[in-house]
Amino acid sequence: MKDYRVILYYIYAKIDDPVTYRDEHHLFCLNNSLLGRVIVSKEGLNGTVSGLEADCEAYMRFIHADPRFERVQFKIEAHDRHAFNKLHVRVKDEIVNSDLPVDPNVSTGKHLEPDEFKQMLADPDVVLVDMRSNYEHSVGRFKGAVTFDMENLRELPDHISEIEHLRDKKVITYCTGGIKCEKASAYLLERGFENVYQLHGGIIRYGLEEGGENFDGKCYVFDNRVAVDVNQVNPIVISTCHVCGTHCDRMVNCANPECNLHVPICQNCGEELEGACSPACQQHPLKRPYDGTGNYATKSNHYNPIQGFRSIKKQEISKKSTTE
């Protein structure tokens, strides 16, 4: 039995004072031993946290107790340990970076529940459009879906021309948990697309509730698991090792920090190249020690709502002054 839970959620809801709420939210997570990443913005919340089942239950009650967030839909997955090493609760301008001139509270694509989405897959007039980044859909995507070679959602306007010919189709957008599609589908409506839908709850919810049929590969996630199984019906591996070309869905970062290429690399090539993506990176003087995972934790600025910001730079200055 797995004692931990990983929770994914978002909501577009007005937060007048995101800084104050950030501190309140952060303290709750600290007091309940939760780790993860939460973004607080004037436009809403976007979070993924992990913790023991009871702590996650308390967290969900905490969210739902706030009238602004009572409509939050949680995607809950069982896990055998924390899916994060740290806790970050940050204030940002948007809960998902997009810079798209739309408001999902005003207009967005029609929400499809997982069972409705599954039924529509058989419709010949339906086209699936993946709204995730290239490294995400490279390791997993729905059969026949349109994908864009983009690093983030801000680049979507540059790729609209690639689907202009699909204006007379039923366009269904999808992403990991649904948040990107709120703005992406709204943007398609803004650009004149009429029959626009979105998979409510994203790939994760579809896998949990409908078995993930016809999702090829794994779903990229933004925690220590990196990529998770979705399809329990007809799964296949679609990605290949960056080094040797064998089928592989093990996503890693190159051990050379100046490269840091994020690609699939199989276990054998990872060991042979000591976590590097090439012999050149293997010989790089700054190459990080390889622990077999190919994932390297980033440094934290150690924000704590009680102590305030203690930046890494200040710590280093203080450390230096005590040794001189």
UniProtKB/TrEMBL annotation:
GO terms for biological process: tRNA modification. It catalyses: uridine(34) in tRNA + AH2 + O2 = 5-hydroxyuridine(34) in tRNA + A + H2O. Pfam families: Rhodanese, Rhodanese_C, UPF0176_N. Residues 122-215 form the Rhodanese domain. Keywords: Oxidoreductase, tRNA processing. The keyword DNA damage does not apply. This is tRNA uridine(34) hydroxylase. It comes from Persicitalea jodogahamensis.
